[in-house]
């Protein structure tokens, strides 16, 4: 059976990394994103490309309407949509908080619901992997918005994994620290901020998207067929152990 994967946020750094990994593993790709120019820039005219905003139900409906029109059946979902909004709670504008929730939590809700409904209509098993953050599991200064969004994502994931396990639909997430991506460019824009960010991890350094993509690809594969409802930390120990202070 042909292996088909849907990648949302496909033009981002992590989306491109998981696309490359899945291609090596012989997956056929459906790439979704809001910006046609960025998708073309990243992938040319290759693969099935869908322009849609999955932070709302209408955008997700469009994605699966185009998938149906092309007679495709994706059985894997890599949901890579998200943004980073930092700032103390009392200084954050409501619009920034809601934008963070839309990008990180509501997009996951709409996309996962659409994907599961698509699988149910064809009575197919499947697997999904979402992206959380180390900030969801440990208090980190000025991360209130992203912590709320990703914490909600993790809670939703565990419940959904329980709901759909009897249909053989697996749902997991990866939880990285800061990654070398365009989304984090402003946070590590200078040598000083990069060094400060790298030093906060027990295993010092900035994460790379290839490592996260490897883990995501494994979670989507048959090698992880007994794995569901799990949050996989890949954060240099940030959320679970303290670094040695010198």
Protein architecture, described:
The protein is an alpha/beta fold and 246 residues long. It has one domain (4-178, 210-234): NAD(P)-binding Rossmann-like Domain (Rossmann fold), CATH 3.40.50.720. The chain contains 7 helices and 7 strands. It has a 7-stranded parallel β-sheet with strand order 3-2-1-4-5-6-7, sandwiched between helices. The longest helix has 28 residues, at 94-121.
Features:
7 helices; 246 residues; 7-stranded parallel beta sheet; Rossmann fold; 42% helix; alpha/beta; 7 strands; globular
**Order of adjacent strands in the largest pleated sheet:** 3-2-1-4-5-6-7
> What's the CATH C level?
Alpha Beta
Q: Name the average pLDDT.
A: 92
By CATH's scheme, which homologous superfamily applies? NAD(P)-binding Rossmann-like Domain
Estimated structural class: alpha/beta
Spell the H/E element sequence. Answer: EHEHEHEHEHEHHE
Q: What CATH architecture do you see?
A: 3-Layer(aba) Sandwich
Strand content: 15-25%
CA-based shape: globular
Number of helices: 7
Distance between the termini: 55 Å
The proportion of residues forming helix, as a percent range, comes to 40-55%
In the predicted model, the low-confidence regions spanning at least 5 consecutive residues are: none
The major pleated sheet works out as: 7 strands, parallel
The fold-level CATH name is Rossmann fold
- Whole-angstrom Rg: 18 Å
Domain count: 1
Question: How many β strands by DSSP?
Answer: 7
